[in-house]
Amino acid sequence: MSTRTVIRGGLVITASDELHADVLIEDGRIAALATSGTTVAEGWTAERVIDATGKYVIPGGVDAHTHMEMPFGGTKAADTFETGTRAAAWGGTTTIVDFAIQSVGGALREGLDAWHAKAEGNCAIDYGFHMIVSDVNEDTLKEMDLLVEEGVTSFKQFMAYPGVFYSDDGQILRAMQRAADNGGLIMMHAENGIAIDVLVEQALARGERDPRYHGEVRKALLEAEATHRAIKLAQVAGAPLYVVHVSAMEAVAELAKARDEGLPVFGETCPQYLFLSTDNLAEPDFEGAKYVCSTPLRPKEHQAKLWQGLRTNDLQVVSTDHCPFCFVGQKELGRGDFSKIPNGMPGVENRMDLLHQGVVDGHISRRRWIEIACASPARMFGLYPKKGTIAPGADADVVIYDPHAEQTVSAETHHMNVDYSAYEGKRLTGRVETVLSRGELVITEREYTGHAGHGVYTPRSTSQYLN
Q1: Has this prediction a pTM greater than 0.85?
Q2: b/e for 357-385, b at 16 or more Cβ within 10 A?
Q3: Rounded Cα distance, 144 and 127, in Å
Q4: Is the sign of the CA dihedral 122, 111, 323, 386 positive or negative?
């Protein structure tokens, strides 16, 4: 039985509007909005009334890039779908899109079924899947058509990780041609993995083994080169392209140039690239291992260019690439050899707050915050307007956000299943207070009131930037 809910007195912020309005929720969806204090709003009755005076009322966040329970380098990501989606809810995210993995030699369907089995009945919030394509062949290409029809409409390929996920240019071109035909969107990890492997081998031979060398061998120019190559392959195929976790200003420049030419090319960055840098990778006593992810953290001067790209819409989406490995026992696998450190960082709980700090610091506007964290990812991956906005008919995924609350980020208080925070000790202004997912309270005034199994699988349409 669904409870009728009214949220009163808050400032409703979407990607397009800011208005003081009350929000009526019925049957898990937004039923209506009305200006606060008007006869219409005052006339609404409900079993549950939430007072949002002095707070923001925003859409639940859409994190379009997570890796729960992902196997990597002999271990697997520390968050399960249960712990990871609960942590996401604590951070104001109400939908994730995770990555199912095709094994080399296996079918797409086998990978997708395996990820459905991991997630089903375990999620606190709604979820969808992208498909990692590791093995392009005739069967794979046919399967891509079938997956698009059933709501898995995006496919990730890797120019990095030879011997694991790597696709060569011919395989990438074939997949892009298929996507051009079936309406799918190719997501690209753009780094020149063949060249990087040479630099890794040379660095280890020189005795350069500390975490900071992870950033030094994965050069910004090799991210830019791969981004350029991916754009040109997509252009040849007549296909759209979405470049994941853009970290280097040179890669942003490639995206900006392509977009200026009118190409359907899109870019995502992540909070770690906006707030952290190679200074973190260089932390002593192997602490830098906490910050090993790929693409890697860059020198601080790249941060301003990424914020600029978000302002100018050369970057459209901020996701987390949440792929947490504990420092003890997991990151430590790479002691004495940076190339063995599991690649990935925790962040699904921190994204909305860190981006709000970007508003406080003057990097972006409030509406742009909602656009890059909620609306654009929902549109990009075929979830809008069900997700990503507050409008009649949308799912009632709503966050009551206190813009004045102060918090200090710490592993002591976070809810991710990982033994460190990448933002330990960072002071932030703004905090999630209450979270509704499809009208049900998941976080109630800073208490977890959700449960595993509330979250449901959500099929997606093709990208709404391309329709």
Answers
A1: yes
A2: bbbeeebbebbbbbbbbbbbbbbbbbbbb
A3: 20
A4: negative
